[in-house]
């Protein structure tokens, strides 16, 4: 049964007698209530409910008599859309939702998927694995207290040209976009006027009290000097003035970053898989 894009639900009777609906979602309060069940698992999606990001999103849900059972989102703020499908527990509802919306998803997208959900897309897409990632949550705020952040300065739109050069040199596969500076949550270190280390956010919302850190890197020749630790700690301290929940994603293979974030009070709360998806027959 196809997904109804007129916001009228497509209903399907299930063996246990319940009725599930696959729908396009547009009510922030309804989406938020579901995502709040596991804030750190859904921290990126919660941040994307903010007005700064909302216009770039499209949300889908699987709903039963008791409410939403699974939620997915596509984010269209990048050259390649990003599909976010985070779920905990039994993947049956998530797979059902992904199967239903597969025909109307972008032909090419980058996907963040909970383990076990890719099978719902394999009939429609060729999937290239891009790594396994941990989701980490800041749980010990006191660990930030002893970190020297005296050299770290806030970055603004006046620093944009330097930041673009910095990312192209230090992090070519970055996810930074100039409009992210509007969050006011980017910090850096300069040496002799040159930007050498930066920490920022992928999403930030004062309204929803969440932030997902990202675009954190240091110029190769300056690594190993504690700069990433300093800019990240400064960012965390600034974020904690307006949000309650701070999270980030890090590759399971990035042992240095995992050690860094653990030392700052972060803990692993789950894992997920990243894939580059291309609809079959599109090549």
Walk me through what this model shows.
With 283 residues, the protein is an alpha+beta fold. It has seven helices and 13 strands. It has a 13-stranded mixed beta sheet with strand order 1-2-3-4-5-6-13-7-12-11-10-9-8, with helices on both faces. The longest helix has 13 residues. The radius of gyration is 20 Å and the shape is globular. 39% of the residues are buried.
Put the structure in a nutshell.
This protein has helices spanning 28-35, 43-47, 51-54, 92-101, 160-170, 227-239, 255-263; strands at residues 10-13, 19-25, 57-64, 67-75, 82-85, 108-113, 125-138, 153-154, 187-191, 194-205, 210-218, 245-251, 266-279.
List the helices and strands and how they pair.
Elements lengths: L9 E4 L5 E7 L2 H8 L7 H5 L3 H4 L2 E8 L2 E9 L6 E4 L6 H10 L6 E6 L11 E14 L14 E2 L5 H11 L16 E5 L2 E12 L4 E9 L8 H13 L5 E7 L3 H9 L2 E14 L4
């Amino acid at each position: 049964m196809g997904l109804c894009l007129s916001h009228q639900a497509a209903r399907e009777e299930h063996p246990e007698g319940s009725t599930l609906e696959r729908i396009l979602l547009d009510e922030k309060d309804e989406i938020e209530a579901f995502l709040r069940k596991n804030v750190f698992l859904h921290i990126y999606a919660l941040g994307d409910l903010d007005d700064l990001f909302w216009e770039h999103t499209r949300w889908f849900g699987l709903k039963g008599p008791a409410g939403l059972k699974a939620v997915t989102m596509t984010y269209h703020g990048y050259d390649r859309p990003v599909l976010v499908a985070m779920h905990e527990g039994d993947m049956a509802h998530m797979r059902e939702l992904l199967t239903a919306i597969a025909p109307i998803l972008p032909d090419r997208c980058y996907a963040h998927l909970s383990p076990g959900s890719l099978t719902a897309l394999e009939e429609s897409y060729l999937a290239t694995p891009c790594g396994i990632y941990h989701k980490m949550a800041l749980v010990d705020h006191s660990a930030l207290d002893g970190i020297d952040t005296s050299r770290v300065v806030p970055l603004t739109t006046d620093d944009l040209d330097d930041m673009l050069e910095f990312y192209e040199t230090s992090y070519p596969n970055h996810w930074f976009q100039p409009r992210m500076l509007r969050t006011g949550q980017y910090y850096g270190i300069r040496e002799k006027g040159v930007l050498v280390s930066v920490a920022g956010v992928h999403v930030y919302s004062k309204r929803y009290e969440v932030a997902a850190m990202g675009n954190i890197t240091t110029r190769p020749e300056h690594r190993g000097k504690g700069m990433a630790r300093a800019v990240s700690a400064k960012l965390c301290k600034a974020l904690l003035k307006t949000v309650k929940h701070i999270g980030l994603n890090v590759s399971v293979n990035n042992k240095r970053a995992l050690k860094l974030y653990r030392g700052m009070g972060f803990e692993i709360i789950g894992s997920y898989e990243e894939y580059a998806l291309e609809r079959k027959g599109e090549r």
